[in-house]
Amino acid sequence: MSASLSPSPGVGPDEFRRLMARFASGVTVATAVDKEGNPHGMTASAVAAVSLEPPILLVCVDHAADFHAAVSAAPRFALSILSHGQEDLSRRFAEERDDRFDGVAWKAGAGGLPLLDGAVAHLLCDQWGAHEAGDHTVFFGRLQDGAVFDRRPLIHFRGGYSTTTDQA
After folding, report:
1. What are the backbone dihedrals phi and psi of residue 49, each rounded to the nearest 5 degrees, phi first?
2. pTM
3. CB-count burial class (<10 Å; 0-12, 13-18, 19+) for 112
């Protein structure tokens, strides 16, 4: 016997944030370059694998984020999966500021995409499409290249940072 659920207005933003804070996630910095070759980036936790064949992932970007315009116009983007000890980078790239890359160690990947030093992995993607979803855009990327490094990841859980301790 199945219960019939009546439509409801859903939960508000604060309750949604509280509930989703119980979902531990990795922390990434998404990057892109504009037409002038200037680097842009933002901290992103809403990242997921979508498909193995072809290899597609997604990253969600708030419409109000200054990174939104940069990634919307870019043919490609990259993700640097942050490692334990890079909490400062997560916080830095989460702030709306013009000097995010000042003093930050990074190298240019294919197409000049910024790849942050000390990351757990780098993923380079061609823009594969986008979908509007509420106050965010879901950007899809087809993975073109990547690299992994033997480091422990930075984890975000319940509004704070930690790392796994059972694996490097």
Report:
1. -75, 140
2. 0.88
3. middle
Q: With the CA atoms of 107, 127, 94 and 17 taken in that order, what torsion angle do they form, in degrees rounded to the nearest 10?
A: -150
Q: One-letter amino acid identity for 126?
A: D
Span 71-125, pLDDT tens digits: 999 999 999 999 999 999 999 999 989 899 999 999 999 999 999 999 999 999 9
State the Cα–Cα distance between residues 25 and 155, nearest whole angstrom: 6
Q: Which long-range contacts (CB under 8 A, 24 or more apart) does 107-114 make?
A: 109/78, 109/145, 110/76, 110/144, 110/145, 111/33, 111/75, 111/76, 112/33, 112/37, 112/39, 113/31, 113/32, 113/33, 113/76, 113/77, 113/78, 114/31, 114/33, 114/39, 114/41, 114/78, 114/80
Q: Can you tell me the distance from the alpha carbon of 93 to that of 161, in angstroms, rounded to the nearest whole number? A: 15
